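haha ok so turns out i had the wrong file open the whole time. this is the CORRECT one, sorry everyone. sequence first:
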Amino acid sequence: MLSSLTLLFGNASALFLAWLLVDSGWHKRNRANRDYYRGVYASYGLLISERWSGLIALWGSLELAIGVALLVDPLRTVAAPLAAGLLLLYFVAIAVALLRGRGGEDCGCAGPDGALTITAALLARNGLLLLLAALVFTAQFTASALLWWQIVPASAVLWLGYQSLQQLLANRQKIVALL
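then structure:
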């Protein structure tokens, strides 16, 4: 039997990562963003021609499906490892870009309006996301109703923290560019 605290953080992480993946997938599925993502993928060394740009939408659909599946108890056993694998893939892509000296290029995070570039701080942020993904393995949405009044606000705190961190990273990059 899992402790209430483990259920709280596991479920809050699942809700948060579901939002993150659905939002990310939504940006990639948006036809207006295809050229942007083709450029981002090219900066990571994945050249996608116009003919194969549908792969970007397919990748977005995969993110959407994993995000939604995180919210369904029977599907979470499959979705949790897929979400962790996806976040690990992004972590490795950022690490490889940094090792190749490609820091400062657009990371592709949060779509065209994200304005974040590849940095060590971004790698650390993705490491934190991987830790949250590990907590999702303990999530059980069959948790008691008494616990839900804590899970939803905890997930909102994770979302607010993530948004604040995104803004801090973007502001840091703008300040460094001014110096």
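The helical segments are 4-29, 34-43, 54-69, 73-99, 120-136, 145-178.
again sry for the mixup
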